[in-house]
Amino acid sequence: QSAGPRNSGSRPLPVGADNCLTGLAFVFTGEMPSFSREDATDLVKRYGGRVVGAPSSKTSYVVVGEDPGESKLKKVRDLKLKVLDEDSFVNLISSTFNGASASTVTLASPLLPVHSAQCTTPVLTSSMTPLWVDKYKPISYSEVIGNKGLIEKLSKWLKNWESNRQYGFPKDVKDDSATFRACLLSGSPGLGKTTSAHLVARLEDFDVVEFNASDVRSKKALDESTGTVSIASLFGTASSSLSKVLGKSAAPVNHKKRGRVLIMDEVDGMSAGDRGGSAELISIIKQTKIPIICICNDRSSPKIRSLANHCFDLRFRRPDARMISARVEMICKKEGLDISPNVIAELVDSTSADIRQILNILSTYKLTNNRLTYDEAKTLSANTRKNSTMSPFDIIGKLLSHGSYRNLSFGDMIDLYFHDYSMVPLMVHENYLNQIPSLSTELRATGKQLDLETVRLLSEAADSISMGDLVESVQRSWSLLPLHAVMSTIRPCFFAHGRGSLRYNFASWLGQNSKQAKAQRFLREIQIHMRLRTSADKNQVCQCYLPTLAQLLTRPLSNSGTDGITEVIRLMDEYYLSKDDFDAIMELGYSKLISGVATSTKTAFTRIYNKMNHPKATMDTVPAKSVGKGHGSELKPDMEEIIDVEDQVLDDDASDAGGNDGDDAISNDRSIKIKKTSTGKNSQKNSKSLASESSR
């Protein structure tokens, strides 16, 4: 990564005629004295030229700055290409502006006189100006941009769904989609997932029933919707129940078509307001008589993992930018909007190839203008740039690299921090030590002086991270988040930004924190089991007991083999330790002791231990919830909704009939055995005897 131009801002940007560089291809190598690489690239694109990465026979000019690449220069000499320096590059552009020099031309246009305040433009209604997204949505498979292979798979799955259902969704077929009752479409927003689902359903002659984030999709809502009919009848033949689910706005069902398809859009958005909705959706999929298409944006969400196991998984990818550019250019020509390929490329880059957002931007812009220039596209891109899909690696790349950091304003850095204010500081902490700060290289220092300045700057960054950690330790003070952003992210990156490694590392603190939590859980369980024999707390168990206990548990196995198993089990029973506790002790830093034991001895130890009865310090008296035959009885709630065991017991007790609470509480206790009452005459005799005893 370069240190940037040494005389940045000393020369104004040249001004040329519109599209004066059309058809020309430029290659930049080295750093120009006055312009950054980004400014020079924008100049070429502004006037219709192209910027390529490597020289070729089709290259028009090669602009050479300071410290150029030797490989590029060698290729330039071999191909005998035209070479320009900064002055020649500026003159090439400014000479096209009617012979005027760049110093006499200003970018600002003069103010035009206002002749009338009366608006002559007719007011356009929504019916007169339909959205471009709806107007130009694909009506055939050939008009779909990208992911055509996935759409063909979706079409094949939907076409063969009914025949696969009649055969019971066989698993021993070559077609992997034939075993699934539902399909899952995943990918970033704007890739055409919902459009593809509707297009395939329409072309395959299916009626569409859609649920999205605006609908209540909780387990309770689905249960209420199916209260009078079974789910099978709801999604099989009962059209009246279907209208009950969808409300008054439900479209009438066309019985002449092949059937209905249910589209569940944004299933990864089924959160707190849709409690139990994911589990209920899975139960519906298991018994559905119509195909179900689920759509999500975040495929890695924990709520989607269990759902994906029951669906035919189709992951949409971002389409090629050239395909999007061609489609957008065709639409702009039909709508009378003058736009160049460079402008379209800028919009594609700023929206992360979201064609839906591009069309919305252009349709809004077309209401007041008929021509979109490159500079206006840059302004629109800055205002509408999509940051929601930025990963932690993208964010840390912008914060630690020289060029991108210095082009960011303070507000931009704050916005990057708030993308994920818990992850971004961890990424900074993980990668700042691998940097060679630009502040040290700009001093032209070498050798030990450069090393000393680098250490000083990284020390400043470390001090700032420490102060940020103090701010973070203040619990629930959300007003301190901007201060935390400065101390944990912006200020450390000011000292550390520069030249770093080619790849940034993921925050290792997360793995270490998980490892620590696991070790703490192991230690707590061991201490609880040993409390009948010891009075030590967790720290004392870890520091005083485990070093000796680990030796006593492994030495007989190492020295005596299978003959020492009895001694080890006796010691474990004396301290109420289980086999899981034995394994946990070995994981707490004593794995080398067990590694010296033969595999056959370990196997024999496990087999003998499992055959024997062992004393336990604690006993679980909470009954396991029985699994009924209902369609959702075996399913667990959503992962983000934690339900305590005590709450489950209270809910079960509250739902029982009155007068049976005490009996159920006793019968559910595993430590108390109750003799089952017999039926018929014997039960009547037993009830009379119990009544007489209670009267006494």
Automatic annotation (TrEMBL):
GO terms for molecular function: ATP binding; ATP hydrolysis activity; DNA binding; DNA clamp loader activity. Belongs to the activator 1 large subunit family. Residues 16-87 form the BRCT domain. It comes from the Eukaryota. Signal peptide: none annotated. One of its GO terms (biological process) is DNA strand elongation involved in DNA replication. The lineage of its organism: Eukaryota, Fungi, Fungi incertae sedis, Chytridiomycota, Chytridiomycota incertae sedis. InterPro entries: AAA+_ATPase, ATPase_AAA_core, BRCT_dom, BRCT_dom_sf, DNA_pol3_clamp-load_cplx_C, DNA_replication_fac_RFC1_C, P-loop_NTPase, RFC1. Its main location: nucleus. It is found in: Nucleus. Residues 649-696 are annotated as: Disordered. Residues 679-696 have a biased composition (Polar residues). CDD domains: AAA (cd00009), BRCT_RFC1 (cd17752), HLD_clamp_RFC (cd18140). GO terms for cellular component: DNA replication factor C complex; nucleus. This is Replication factor C subunit 1. Residues 649-666 have a biased composition (Acidic residues). Keywords: ATP-binding, DNA replication, DNA-binding, Nucleotide-binding, Nucleus, Phosphoprotein. Gene3D superfamilies: 1.10.8.60, 1.20.272.10, BRCT domain, P-loop containing nucleotide triphosphate hydrolases.
